[in-house]
Write a structure and sequence with these properties.
The protein is 45% helix and 21% strand. By secondary structure, it is α/β, with parallel strands linked by helices. The chain has a five-stranded parallel beta sheet, with helices on both faces. α1 packs across α5 (108-120) and α2 runs parallel beside α3. The two termini are 17 Å apart.
Length: 121
């Protein structure tokens, strides 16, 4: 079964995305910020098919987490999510690490579609 990690500090967004992706047949783990996400990635020895992370979070943001995760596990697929245009621009520096940046708010159909495309990449 395809295993995803959702890293999102907003509990309602995290829960909504997790439920939508579970219903689509994915095995989901969740983390509330980048530090927890990186802990989960390391604990799983990078054994996730895709990381879906918000960019703007307390303690460690999604970009810092993506850089650290990609350094440790170069084959890891990472997709970022943001509601802030300036944060999307920050993700441009991660070409080759990040597969996609999804703009919030997103629909459940959109997140399922974008995850499917990222996994197929």
């Amino acid at each position: 079964m395809t295993k995803l990690l959702i890293v999102e500090d907003d509990e309602s967004v995290r829960t909504l995305a997790a439920r939508a992706l579970e219903r689509a047949g994915y095995n989901i783990d969740v983390a509330a910020d980048g530090a927890q996400g990186l802990e989960s990635i390391r604990a799983a020895n990078g054994n996730y098919d895709l990381i879906v992370s918000d960019i703007r979070m307390p303690e460690m943001d999604g970009i810092e987490m993506a850089k650290a995760a990609a350094a440790a596990f170069p084959a890891l697929k990472i997709m970022l999510v943001t509601g802030y245009a300036d944060q999307r621009e920050r993700a441009d520096e991660l070409n080759g690490i990040i597969l996609d940046v999804v703009q919030k708010p997103f629909t459940l159909a959109e997140i399922r579609d974008r995850v499917g495309r990222a996994l197929a990449a």
